[in-house]
# Entry
Amino acid sequence: MSTIRIFFITLFFVLAMTGTLFAQADSPTGLPIPRQEANSPATPQISDSLPHYLEVAARNNPRVKADFLAYKASLEKMPQAGAYPDPELEIGFFLQPMEIIDGRQIVDFTLMQMFPWFGTRKAARTEAEHMANMAFEQFRETRDNLYLRVYTQWFTLCSLQQQLSNSRENRDYLKQLETLAIRKFSASPAGATGSGGRTQTTPATGSSSTATSSMGASGNMGSMGSSMGGTATQPQTTGNTMSSMSSGGSMQSMGSSSGMSVVLRIQLEIAELENSIESILSQIEAETAAFNALLNRPDNNKVHLPDSIIAIPFSLDVALTAEQINLNNPMLAMIDQEGAAYRAKAEMDKKMGYPMLGIGLQYSVIGKRMDMGHAGLPVTDMNGKDMIMPMVSISLPIYRSKYKAQQKESNIRWQASRQQYADTQNTLYTELYRSRHSLDDASRKIALYEKQSQLAQTTYHLLVQEFISGKSDLTDVIQVQRQLLDYKLKKAEAIAEYNTMVASIQKLISFESN
# Structure
């Protein structure tokens, strides 16, 4: 009977201890459900658009997923920080029952639960909560950095696509110019030869006729003079005719070689543009692979780009933006949460310097003594009755130096976090003003290159008309055509720089707030 009683008592204590542990494991953390910034379904986006690519990057990028998992892991610190110390159960068996006055002591059960000083658990939970918030702000910062990289890579691809379109358009202009040059110079040598022949032959014939008639009007010598004059004019006519043929042949050769050189120069420009187009295509392929790497997908996935790049409408208010930076920037929020965690830790260190209280219970299994009457001991109702003894314990934190040092450490770290906050704030303000300068500079460049492109386009069309009519040289046409292409390429680069600066300013505020 005594053995069965001991078994059930032991089972009771084990179940009580297990229930306490499960109760601690199921206690609420006190922190709201984490916002699923990277994993929750968002509003459906148009496929192959920039918002769609941003969403894919946030879902798939390994660095963002790693930081989000680190944030979820930090949430699990909450139950650990706010939990009570584990209760202690001690079981002591006597190899031989201990003889006492009212029985025999067989086994002792001692259960003790320690409790920290009032407010210690709350301070520990507060510290863990701020540390979890730090991890979340780190996740936001990583996500915003990824968004900025996606924006930058996207605008780079759009700029290259615009440059490719401009280069192909200028190649078409050169091919049209080549066609005009071929048409102009294909018939020019023949016309020049016929005119030259007529110009040289007609005066020679007229001179011969005049000489014959004048010499035929002389007296008796008219017949001889006429004969001699006729004989004299034949070699002159023949010589002039041959000179005219030689001059016409030379002009034909010069006109043909001049026309061919013009066509060849245009073809050289076309070949150079073809090489530039191939280089841009190769660069687009490389940048596309980098863009797909940000999205954590195969390098050869096609990225659908718009046909042209345009500047993002944006108006910057520096004072308002600085205020929004203070409210929403993840780096400032992370440092602020770090300071709050140190304050909570200092409070917890202070509470840890106070005594810990313990409440326990001791249960002793007592067997009956059968020899009490023979030994001369009075038989009482306590013979063989189990004993229950409540207990109270208290810790004595008498070594104060370590607790004071812990509090001082936490306060110094809090002060350091304040200095770091101010330094980061100054850095962000500096970056804001630099971004404003770059934004204004890019805006001026866009306006300048747009105006120069329009002027160069008008000049190009005028020079082409003058070239067709023979009033302008091909060198002028090609030079203006090069300037036109250069202005268009620079304009595309300026727009990409402008849009990148807009994204950089939005990143300072945090893309989440936008």
